[in-house]
Design a protein that fits this description.
This protein is an all-alpha fold and 160 residues long. The chain is built from eight helices and no strands.
């Protein structure tokens, strides 16, 4: 893959990086740094992309691994959900239901957050398994449990 092709693919799939950063990183400066780190790690690993999966699946895995490795190194624990966590970079036309769902997803543990986000982006259970290292069946079981957990979080909210 040429440098030009690689840059084009990264630009075409920049939404993947943005979504991962939104879900896993609260600090805007940290998010900018990690975006650059994800792009660097993808560049370093570009020769290992063999085309066995879609570029988007490969990039998702690189981005997710970069963010999770960073979090492990910093020993950053998931913080409580605050209303201000969801104000940044949300589209102005985001519906209340979509906002509630984002809040609930952001409160999940890292692996569950990853699974449900990939599911909502129409990745099938096999592709989610490829990215997370889980079996297709395990992804299915986890998805069911995550959906139940999200329903409970949304339905049990104050004034809900």
């Amino acid at each position: 893959m040429t440098e030009k092709d690689f840059i084009s693919k990264i630009q075409n799939h920049s939404g993947i990086i943005h979504k991962i950063l939104y879900l896993y990183v609260d600090d805007p400066e940290e998010s900018r740094d990690l975006k650059q780190e994800i792009q660097l790690q993808a560049w370093k690993a570009k020769d290992r992309f063999r085309g066995d999966s879609q570029f988007s699946t490969w990039l998702y895995r690189v981005a997710l691994n970069t963010v999770l490795t960073y979090k492990r190194k910093k020993k950053v624990e998931t913080t409580e959900i605050k209303d201000t966590d969801f104000v940044k970079e949300l589209p102005k036309d985001t519906s209340e239901q979509a906002d509630l769902l984002l809040r609930a997803i952001k409160g999940l543990n890292d692996i569950d957050k990853t699974i449900i986000t990939l599911h909502l982006e129409d990745y099938d259970n096999s592709e989610i398994g490829d990215i997370t290292g889980l079996t297709k069946n395990n992804v299915g079981v986890k998805l069911h449990r995550i959906k139940e957990q999200l329903k409970k979080k949304i339905n049990d909210r104050p004034n809900g």
